[in-house]
Amino acid sequence: MRVVSNIGAHYTLYNLVTDKLEEVHVKRLKAFEYDPMMVDPLQVAAADADEFIIERVLDHAGDPKKKSSLDFLVKWLGYDDNENLWIPWKEARLNPKVHEYLREKGLERLIPT
Description:
With 113 residues, the protein is of the alpha+beta class. The protein has helices at residues 41-48, 89-92, 96-104; strands spanning 2-7, 10-15, 20-25, 54-61, 71-76, 85-88. The chain folds into 2 domains: 2-48, no CATH class; 54-110, CATH 2.40.50.40. A 3-stranded antiparallel sheet has the order 1-2-3, with no helix packed on it. β2 and β3 (20-25) form a beta hairpin.
């Protein structure tokens, strides 16, 4: 979370994991101190929310003419290569890292509008 603004005891926070703003009372807040050379706040936030973040897309399989047949091999942020996983189009289609991969491969026509 990152503080965006506050009015009195009410704070507006930017959630790094969900990419949304949240309203929180000051009593629920505490400082997050870390060494930026050792800790990535996004990784901590994702682990805290039990969410996985795609670091990059490594490969794809399936027929680009039939989007539902596509699968993407993804590397998860903060995890070793042995945790890489194939995920289907349905789960990957809105992810910015997948869009980046599709652009690199000349498949930008597949990016949802």
